[in-house]
Amino acid sequence: MSFISGGSRWSDVGLATAARGIATCGDFLAASTLTLTLQAAGAGGIAVAGVLLAATLPLVLFAPLTGRLADRVDSRILLTSAGLAQSVICLNLAYAGHPLLVIGLVALLATGLAVTQPVLSALIPAMVRPVDLPRAVALNQTAGMLGALAGPALAGFLVGWFGSRVPLLVGAVSYLALVVAGLLIRTRRGGARPATSVSADTSMPAVADASAANWRLRRDPLLVAMVATLAGVVSAVGAINVVEVFYIRETLGASAAVYGLVTGAWTLGMLCGAWIFARLARRFTDDATLIQGGLLLLAGCCVMVLVSVTVPVALLLVPIWLLGGVCNGGDNVFHNVVVARRVPEAVRGRAFAAIGAAVQGAAMVGYLIGGLLLEVNEPRPLIVGCGVAGLLVLLGFVRPVRRAIRLERSRVAAMSPAAGLATSVPAR
Predict the structure, then answer these.
(1) Among residues 56, 103, 206, 290, which one has the fewest Cβ atoms lying within 10 Å of its Cβ?
(2) Which helix (H) or strand (E) holds 75?
(3) What are the boundaries of the signal sequence (predicted)?
């Protein structure tokens, strides 16, 4: 793998993270606006699940294509063109009336996200030195979390004051941040030339090229175990994304503004968790340790979901969701650091797209289950089911993860000291 030589380009990290934060705010603003509008119009869980599925399906279907685009096409071209397209689509979404047209436009909007997500994820490691990677990942997480925090809150207030059109127009403007970032970021990757910021090991270019050409996710047992565990938990708990709007608005009787505040609390927790656990991630050179830590953090998320059913009023969800978000944010940092360490630079776009597709595909399963079960069950028992299912999935993956860790440590121990420098080294 390759990282930047010399000093890290923090100005580029700042531009990329700002663009991600603003565009993410647009994503969540649009999604929350549509969810609130459907719920207020009397739509059921299946309608809400349909919108969420439309917003997720392109990230799964197009991952093989968008991952290769991120690695082979100039990142500047992809960010500017996708940002412009998303802005136009969201503008049309503000004036769409027919439900099928809305779902189609949401799917197109998500197609743009399927392009920009792996581009930005692969650019961040190319901007910084290895020692600065956890901090850069935490900054990127922070931007995304701030955007996800602001989006639902803005949607709650704007929908209450102005209806659905104004927040969608604001969302259309937010995507222009990707265009600005694409034009100003000096770090570039993809295209016919090598990444401008990355210094590959020129003493062995053929080895580096061969490593990238032969890389497959399925050939890395540790990454496979990590992704499978994460996807399994997301599929088990993902139904809560459909259920929570009915739980908060109907079961607990909260207003649209309180709904935005509560959903934003989880995101605020993720922001805090990203910085707390970024400091820890720098101390561990053993990828297996980070993955084990991720398992504990995912368990924390599931426990907080279970605890949330005990509250009598919606505002009491805020501290519970904050703690769950802290665990979620820490897990995201650990997993992103592991991927950036283990995947060759030339194929990072493909790797991030593939992993994102696995997780988003699992989320789709959760959305579908949540939408169907809401037709025959109340929200509160469904949330209990989500938390219990998540913990059971984690228990089921403990043994496969341990097996993958043993294989990894045996492989590292069998390598020469020189070769060991290219991979993760067991912590002392």
Answers:
(1) 206
(2) helix 75-93
(3) none
For residue 237, the cross-strand partners are none
DSSP per position, 108-171:
HHHHHHHHHHHHHHHHHHHHS-GGGHHHHHHHHHHHHHHHHHHHHHHHHHHHHHH-SHHHHHHH
CB proximity list for 161: less than 8 A, separation 6 or greater: none
The DSSP 8-state label assigned to residue 26 in this structure reads: H
Structure tokens at 99: 């439900």
Q: What is the pLDDT of residue 54?
A: 79
**Residue (of 86, 91, 137) closest to 113 by Cα position:** 86
**At 4, is the secondary structure helix, strand, or coil?**
strand
Domains and CATH numbers, the chain: 10-190+215-415 (1.20.1250.20)
Query: Angle CA(150)–CA(57)–CA(77) in degrees, nearest 5?
Result: 70
How far is residue 181's CA from residue 17's CA, in Å, rounded to a whole number?
A: 9
> pTM of the entire structure?
0.66
Q: How many helices (H) and strands (E) does the chain have?
A: 17, 0
Six-digit token pair at 155? 């949607």
3-class SS of residue 223: helix
Would you state the pLDDT for residue 301?
Answer: 92
Where the chain has pLDDT below 50, the residues are 1-6, 193-210, 418-428
Chain-centroid distance of CA 319 in Å reads: 22
Selection from 69, 80, 35, 79 nearest residue 53 by Cα: 35
For 18, residues 6+ apart whose C-beta sits below 8 A from its C-beta are 143, 177, 181
> Residue 300: its pLDDT value, please?
93
